[in-house]
Amino acid sequence: MLKRLGILIVALSVSLSWAREAFAQASDSPDSSEYLIKAGFIFNFAKFVEWPPVAFAQTDTPIVIGILGTDPFGPILDQIVRDKKIGNRGFIVKRLNWNRDSKDLKDCNILFVSASEKAHIDDVLQIVKSLPILTVGETPGFAERGGIIRFTVEDNRVRFEVNVDAAHLAQLTISSRLLTLARIIQQPTIETRKPG
Fold this sequence. Notes:
Largest sheet: 7 strands, mixed
Structural class: alpha/beta
Number of domains: 1
């Protein structure tokens, strides 16, 4: 188990090390290294999540990463996934705007919900609920509200939480190797939400 965890960490480090060099001069923003790391995680999440067969039309259908709202990644995410494949699948990155009836949301395999969309999180999660879409966000409470993965920053390090129940509802299987790196979040039940 520790050997597998080590392999995951090395794989993430390698993919981030080349990207860090490539983007060292790409942005003067203090957040650029944070989003470089988050972009690397998103790419690696795709390696450790299994979608049901219905999620893709064909065996070589690309993995669609949607960014809903203000894009904090700039060109970084596009550069990280360019020419990369997982099995036969390449990647497509799409920028999306909020629309209550958005078909675009449902066409994603990975949906990053930007912090700019915090007012719409419940609506977005309701639209994609039970669809095979890996929802990723960074707004506090994202995982508790039904999102699957939420990025956090602790001690200047990017970490993540996983709502396993939400992943199960979306018919996604998350590798135990990825889960060992995550903080597992439980969605509050109705009894837990009632005032005592």
